[in-house]
Write a structure and sequence with these properties.
Distance between the termini: 81 Å
Number of helices: 13
Shape: globular
CATH architecture: 3-Layer(aba) Sandwich
CATH class: Alpha Beta
CATH superfamily: Bacterial extracellular solute-binding protein, family 7
Length: 327
């Protein structure tokens, strides 16, 4: 009898242990990271690395699944889903942050950043911390990290060596004031268009030109349908990694592990992007594309009057603080 009772007790104990283990497995929280970039990009690779770091740091309590290439919606839809908590983490452009808090979009405007080193100093500055906090107060969302997206350059079927060469040029831009300032200031015609449509529009002559960083020009193959890459470096672009307030609330202390994982991979990826920019000019030349070095000063002078005054979403004090940041 005793033996049978003991066996029964052991069986019950084993069953409870198995059930507890199954419950623990089911209790693992799965976060969703959505973005619009292809799976072949370094941004997607970074998100996957962040997922690994998060799972490791939380002892498996949290897992993060990454959905590239607009699988969870385009950028506007992802920003909306973030506020609702149906997506936990997204990449988004600074212009989207600016829709909630205008001044934070300053880094997406032409020639507000002098270099990658200036950009790096800015994202680690008190100024950026203050603007991120202000954005958080308005939107509820947390800016976990900024990733360097690259310096934007103009591609066309002719050299663009001075502002005069921009006159009358029909150039595709994103549909945001930050991206339209440079072409307007130099006499071109900014033409907003969905990113997915750009290659065909260039190929068919619907637009004459486009502007993007060198890594983007490479992976979107714009060099196949444009003969000249002109190194205007007019915008120093960023990708913000943003976390939903719903996610931060539910994660409690584990939220710090998520923010740290996202910040770590952003730093790594930024360094990778700037290194690739240093190599890509020669790579494009090897493909038979003309890569033109450009004197940026006349372009900067054309844009300068537009960076102060009432038409920009920041005040003079913020602009002056940004320019005072040393590389």
């Amino acid at each position: 009898m005793l033996k049978l009772s003991r066996l029964r007790a052991l069986s019950i104990g084993a069953a409870v242990a198995i059930a507890a283990s199954a419950t623990a497995t089911l209790a693992q929280d799965v976060l969703k990271f959505g973005h619009v970039y292809e799976a072949s990009t370094p941004y997607h690779a970074a998100a996957l690395r962040a997922a690994e770091l998060l799972e490791e740091a939380t002892g498996g309590r949290y897992k993060m699944e990454v959905f590239p290439a607009s699988q969870l919606g385009k950028e506007a839809a992802l920003n909306e889903a973030l506020s609702l908590g149906t997506v936990d983490v997204i990449y988004t452009g600074v212009a989207f942050l600016g829709q909630s808090y205008g001044p934070i979009s300053i880094s997406d405007y032409p020639f507000t950043m002098r270099s990658y080193e200036h950009w790096k100093a800015y994202v680690n500055s008190d100024l950026f911390d203050e603007m991120s906090e202000a954005y958080n107060k308005v939107s509820g969302n947390t800016v976990a990290a900024m990733t360097y997206y690259g310096a934007r350059h103009v591609t066309a079927n002719k050299p663009i060596l001075s502002p005069k060469d921009m006159e009358g040029l029909k150039i595709r831009t994103p549909n945001a004031p930050a991206y339209q300032m440079f072409p307007r200031a130099t006499g071109a015609n900014p033409t907003p268009m969905a990113f997915a449509e750009v290659y065909l529009a260039l190929q068919q002559g619907v637009v004459d030109a486009q502007e993007n960083p060198l890594p983007t020009i490479q992976f979107k193959k714009f060099y196949e349908v444009q003969s000249n890459i002109n190194l205007t470096g007019h915008i120093t672009n960023s990708l913000a990694t943003v976390v939903s307030p719903v996610t931060m609330n539910k994660m409690g202390e584990d939220g710090a592990a998520l923010l740290e994982a996202l910040a770590t991979v952003a730093t790594q990826t930024s360094d990778e992007i700037v290194a690739s920019e240093g190599e890509l000019a020669d790579w494009f030349r090897d493909q038979g594309v003309t890569v033109n070095e450009v004197d940026r000063k006349p372009f900067m002078e054309a844009v300068a009057p537009h960076l102060t005054g009432e038409d920009v979403p920041w005040d003079a004090a913020i602009f002056e603080r940004l320019q005072a940041i040393q590389e």
